[in-house]
Structures
1.
Amino acid sequence: MKFGNITKGFATGLAVIWLAGCASTGTQTAGSGVAGTEDSTVGGAQTAVVTTPLVDPAVQAVIDSGKVQGSVEQIEALLKQDTVHFGFDSDKLSSDDIKALDVQAAYMTSPAGVNSKLVIEGHTDERGTRTYNLALGERRAKAVKSYLALKGISSSRIEVVSYGFEKPVDPSHNEAAWANNRRAVIVPIEG
Amino acid sequence: MRAYLRVALFGFLLIMVSLARAELTIEITQGNDKAVPVAVVPFAWSGQGVLPEDIAGIVGNDLRLSGQFAPVPTSQFLGFPSKASEVYFGDWRRLGTSYLVIGQVTEQPGSRYRVNYELFDVLAQKSVVRGEVSGNRNQLRSVAHSISDAVYEKITGVRGFFSTRIVYVVANRHNENSTDYKLVYADMDGHRAVPVLQSKEPILAPSWSPDGRRLAYVSFETGRPAIYIQELATGRRERISSFRGLNSAPKWSPDGQKLAMVLSKSGNPDIYVLDLTTRALTQVTRHYAMDNEPSWMPDGKSIVFTSNRGGSAQLYEVTLATGKVKRLTFEGRFNARARVFPDGKSLAYIHKGKGDQSYNVAVQEIDTGRMRLLSSSPFEDAPDVSPNGRMLIYSAKGEGKGVLGIISADGRVSFRLPSTEGDVREPAWSPFLN
Amino acid sequence: MKDKFFWRIINAVQGQGSGNWRLPILFSAVLHTVLLIGLFMVMPSSSETRTINPSPSFVSARVVTLEQAKPKPKPKPAPRVAPEPRPKPKAQPKPAPRQPVKKPPPKPKVDQKAIALKRKQEEERKQREKAAAERERQRKEQERLDQLQKQREQEMLAAMAREQQARQQAAQLKADQAEVASYTQVIASLVSSRWSRPASARRGMTVVLRIRLAPTGEVISIAKVRGSGDEAFDRSAQQAVNSAAPFREIRNIESRIFEKNFREFTFLFNPEDLLK
């Protein structure tokens, strides 16, 4: 659902770009994850057209920032990663998750993302007491926020909220479920 | 000199004589710690139709769940007396019962009911107490509980808890994005449950005001945690704390004037005290670790709280006047969410030992530090102590969902409250009411 | 304090006794002391707790006496208590001064000799009389000493007899005490196993009950001598006794011991395993 918001935002933005593209250079199709070719005729003359897949402007913004290295696909995947996971009773970020946050920070400091805002939700597994976990969840969310702040994101752009283990992804009682539930989720705020 | 000698000698002999003839005293230093057998005879009913509530059944059940009584099965009774003149002590003694409760219910005009009861000491063959309670049809359970209270107090010397109430939270999860939460108010035996708050967002950490009229709790109804106070009788509520970050774990002070809580508005969770009259907020702890889950000592002078300042979650006590902090627990990896017993001598909390996987209710004597685990299911939480200090309520996981357990403070007796639909958690035991 | 008192007795007996009643007192004191020590060895003192493990393993009982609670006389080391009555040199029969008996002198010669003889005879007569008196004195002295010796022997025999009797009594007492202790344990464990302490019970609460039993073990009466102030606690103790009764085991006890110990006795309920 949270990811859905991001996608929706991107889709809207791309639609605008697509319309603009139509007006100037001809026909292009683009969409988030959907790219293809299409024959069309302009003024009766048939011309061969070349379509190129449009890079997500957010991804492009990250690439343009020069702050992170990686292929377009890698950066796109990292930018789409809205969840980071934690060890038991821990608020330490893993190195994999840090890459995703680096990408996020690069986007948020780029001209394209400079006005974006986030809510970071902290969650825990079911072990321990509810009120303890409420505080632990906040720690996790704040660990993410602190990292982004380190990368130059003003703390006024990031809000944190902890749900403890009130909102598990997986309500079952096993290690796999617990690992899934120990997380912080990055939710862009629209507008 | 010689006279003195003779007197001294006489005294000396006297001591020896008295020693030789000393009277026998048998000292009893230990007991059996068994439940006291009690027979509760079905109350005689004089009225129309069927008696709406089984008063004796409720009384017997109350006494059983206290863990201190073992009601004798009705099937073994040799008679069903309802008046003192009908009691044959020999019969009851033969049944092995120590106490006997009898009574009558009389229907009165205006659909009211008068209930008379009498408690007998079967072994001493005498009446211990008798009384009369009345109420309308809806109050019959309360009437029964008040009889249980009277019987319990006479025999145990401790005030009964059968007329107290509990609140707890029930969650019904429909899917990942939809869960209904209810804050429920019920008799301590789980009967007569009514929701007092319903929400689509989490509700947790209810705490009773010492007068039993209001609740403080955390609700996420705005999408962020905030602390509310709700008056039970009217349903009127007020949001009293919605700072940025955590607004959590409210706990009413023993004098009812203040509310301890956890706020993270200054960066990380610390204990604060809000004066409910002046609305003055005082920061009590100031530490980069997570300070959490406050519980007042009965004198209101210090607060026990959870902190991971030592590397793992442990319990500490902070004296409000000085701010001095003392560590209370040392055993195990996780000791959290303490509740102080009414006498201020013990703590109930959630404990996880080194290498343990489960979180269990533990009771610790504060003076000696001696800790005892009370139960052993894997995910226990939120212990709270009955106002007479004899019982604890807590949440546990039964068949994958949350249920409430009640256990005697000595660990002798435990039972599950009747299961309701949904995931039950966050119980809080009321103070004595009335 | 006690020691001083004790020494004063012994000093008095040894130092300034008139002699006539010195010995009996000394003996009496010694015997009583032996008895006293024996008594303490048999009777457990109040500071000593015995843990018995009959069927319910949590039962423990101890025997105490009301009087013992206050003065706690420790058994004294024996040598201080019983210095042997040292025979006084005075009382020792003195070896009689054995003067060699002189032979009668040879007969004197006539005249001059006769006078001399007469004088001599006179002298010898006197001498003989003197010797006879001396013999008489010696005989009497011997008699007196013999008498004294005899008396002493008799006294000693009597003392030995008394000691023997005391030893028997002590043995009997010890046997009795053992029996009392064993029945005490039985009763204590029965009552303990029936005692359901109420929630209000705390360490430090005590209730004293006075019990009258029939030889059949039936409880004739229970009287509260001293309560704890907690009604429920006191009632639980009375219930424990009532519930454990009748004490059928008591029927096997010797009636002498029953009458002395169990006809009427006291229960002290003093929970030691509870929280304060």
2.
Amino acid sequence: MTTDKLEWLPLSTPTPPPKKQLSAGELPCPTCGWPIASNIDTCPHCGRSRDAAPTGDILATLGLELPPPVIEAVTVPADWYRPDAPLSPPGLYQLRLQAERLRVTTGFDRLICLDDISVDHYQHQLDAALRVLRDMRGRALLADEVGLGKTIEAGIVMKELLERGLVNSVLVITPASLTWQWQEEMTAKFHESFEVLEDLSQWPDAPVENQPARYIISLSRAKSAQWAERLLSRSYDLLIIDEAHKLKNHRTAAYKFVNQIRKQYVLMLTATPVHNHLLELYNLITILRPGHLGTRRAFRDNFIKRAEPRYTARIVYSHTPPLPYLRLTGQERRDALAQGQTDRIYQRTTDINDLPNLRLDRRGRRAVQTIESLLADGYEVIDFEAIRPTFWQGYSFVCVLNLTEAALEARQKRKPVTPDNPAALRQLLREVMVRNRRSSVGVKFPPRRAAIYAFDLTPPERQLYDTMTIYIRQELRQSTDLSRGALQMSLMSLQKQLCSSPAAAARSLQSLVDRRPDDPRLAEALVLAWGIRQSRKLVATLDLLAQYPGKFLIFTDYLPTLELLVKELNQAGIETVAFHGGLPALDRLETVRRFRDSARVMVSTQSGSEGHNLQFCHQLINYDLPWNPMRIEQRVGRLHRLGQQADVSIFNLSANNTIEAYILDLLARKIRMFELVIGELDLILGQSDDDRGFERRIEAAWEESLTEAELAQLIAQLDQILGQAQSEYDTIRSASDELSDLLEAMDEVRPP
Amino acid sequence: MTTIPPSSMRAFAEAFFTHFGAPIEAGPDELIVELPDPLAAHFGRPRLYLVLPTGHDKPRDLSPHEDVLVYGSRIFERMLALLDGQGELARLAYPRQVAVTLATELKPSLRRPVFRLVETAVDRRQPWVQIFNFRVTYRSDEKEEMFETIVLDANGRPDPAAEALIRSTAPLADPPGLLPDLEPQPEQAAALMRQRAAGHAAELQQSMQARLEKVLLRLTGFYRRLMAEIDAGQPDQDEQARADLQQELDRKIADELERHQLNLTLTPISMAVALLPSVHYRLAIDDPARPDPAHPLTGSERRATPYEGSPPVVNAVDPLSRQWSRYRWHVVPHDDYTIYLGHHWLWGTAVLVLDYNGTVLHRQQVGWVGSSH
């Protein structure tokens, strides 16, 4: 009885919301640009009269002068002309003059870098880059919707500034998961070599202020004391912050660190500048242009609708039951502390500014976010106490605030981005923020559909998989801490190869047998792997190739699998080429050319395919599944990208009752990753990120479970976390859509 | 004698490849260039398909073998690289320049046949000049570059008239082999260039100052309000918080001042000594009511003949949108130029002086309903 099943995943199509109309905009202050209501004569921001033209007295008031121009010494050679010197013919002299006249740069009237980058750029990206350079003077929040190429826009701005000699040092701050991706993109697309900072020894002993620099560093590393001290010791011509929404909270160490960096040009990239509250946007823009949106209080007064003002009830945030200590009244707690009854308290603070310094788990951090947004709503702290109990209770977190339940209820009903004075806010945002929507720039991704091809392994494959899975789990449990690191890596790798192909597993087993020749279980498994003549996945692949005409790109992570596939498919009469990172550059080009011109299938490892145009193909098979979903997204992104004309089909091979099947189920059904636009997956996973990526969570679940039932239980927990992350992302997306509406909405015409 | 065409990307590309001996096949928006060996090695291929954007259409899709030739494009950069270090020193000769001024106040009532054209005063010069070319880069929070030419006369004095002539004319491709008797003075040119650049820098600083003031107003307004909002009820802490904010403000102001510092770089590009022969004519038109003035050199008188000539071969319409053909013309040919005296019953009198290339050396119109010069 066959168990094969090809199931197409359902797709949902969201309907775009209707456009809104905003009330009339305020007139900007002629001096500082702050919007002033028509019935007010004096700007509440800079204090100048509405009718006053900008004057030059601010410099004098501050006792400053515009620094005089610095003229570099002219180095005219004294012997520039000698009667006996060799002369150029007039034609050549004149040609040089023509060239020199054509090469002069006159402001940001055009982009000069486009021929020096290897990017399929789009008009909205060029427009954004020019707007940033010309109108925003290189300080901008690039907030395009996901998938429209914010990195490309930032790269173009960077390259343009570099080519014009305006920038010499660049610091890129990204989430830890993206540092290497940034490095690769900067190299492949913009031909700029960046150094990923990971070790303190990489930092020069005595960095010179104006020394050229191209650094990429993760935000978590950069804000650490040792790195922060070094990074802040110099200024940067250009600072790029990817996933800038991580700085939405101005009380965090990350925010404070970034705010201290001395920079000339700043680009902040995020598709979701508002998650829960408009003040998050305020925080981002205040890094870019301090004072552009006024002080926090002024911003709240001008743009944020107030919630109910008073509060009396006490709210406790915790995922563990409140400790007896917290059931005490304020005075009782003070007495208890005075009597030294603090043995169960590990960290305690009554200063709300210390919140970011508590070491918290995910729920604790979420609680802090909630508190932040309550504060942002205008609530004031009258009784605050945060406690982290002793270690044995884990990283729980308890906080007491006083609020009314009615106020909370009102807050929950309110949408995060609905400002007062929307037209005025829009006017201010447009000066610092670029936000393109897919619908407004006319960029359409081709439709894509995904299917899971599920099947049972053959008995020998099943035997190999089950035997080795038990073996690997046992070995990991028995390993000592000292040997664990390397062993864990190779055993985990073996587990992944078991899912890829017997050939891949055999190669890994061989290496283990070489290291442990006395282990009979390994030798038996190796013999078993060698003996498997036909992989079930290969049969499924041939089936797909027979069912669906046209070219196929097949991804595998392992060279033995790649070699096996190429051999078997060619033997089956299907012209197949192999592409992997070990190929020299010219061979890669030739392979892609062959795939385009004649071969039906290209089997590729992930490395190296970036930068090659593969859009002539629109069918992809995930032969094996990377446990890191971002890598799956990168694979899909090779075909499903701007410029692809045909509908893209993604086939995922899934052997029943293997770890791959669990992962695929989680990704395809829970967060519906194959429906997401490129970039969205990272945002969703970012919501659930607690310093361990999805891949590490899967590895941990797999490692910690002794049986399949235990694994299923742990995966179910992960499923819950992802569900929560998905739900949070939906809220964020809704907030971002509101922000887009705000920026796109038409002003009502103000009556004269 | 041939002259070198003016600057434009297409003209430059054609001049460039012609100079280096590469045959060009030109299309409306493209150039196909067969590259000889040394050039083929430099560009990395034997043939270039260059696409020149026309500016008014959407850029066309390029096939893989085509290259767009625009400012900043890779091909343009390769062309510049080939020219680097070349054409830095030359001896030039410009075609003779003719300049004409009208010494008489023109009246609209100048009517047939009562005017007389008086022989001109002549000023013939044949000077050597020194030409210095610089690239000036103005860099602050943005970058602007200018190409500047300084012309000094043989004595090292600035020569604005020669500079204007050189700007409007290309040198001869094959100059006579004369050697100048002058010692070029690059230091003087550099000093003059510095002075001129400082003048432009002052203009740039004015606009920069307005920008800086706006930034400073934003920053100071912001920080002052922040300081005013501090009220934790603990004076010492409040004072400290204000001091911290003031310190932060001072740092940001210092950063902004640095950001708005204008840096100028003067880069010498090339120099030449040039023969710049020129002739200056002064014309006078006499009123017959007064005694006929004699020719200043020959003493002879010249009486104009009545209007009977053809209209000048220039644009059919004058700057006042009047058709030249509706004037009646009196034509006076000369060695270096031709004078056209025109008359219309309503539009009045027009004087046009054209050289033999059709260049207008002088144009003046005085009428009952409008004048132009």
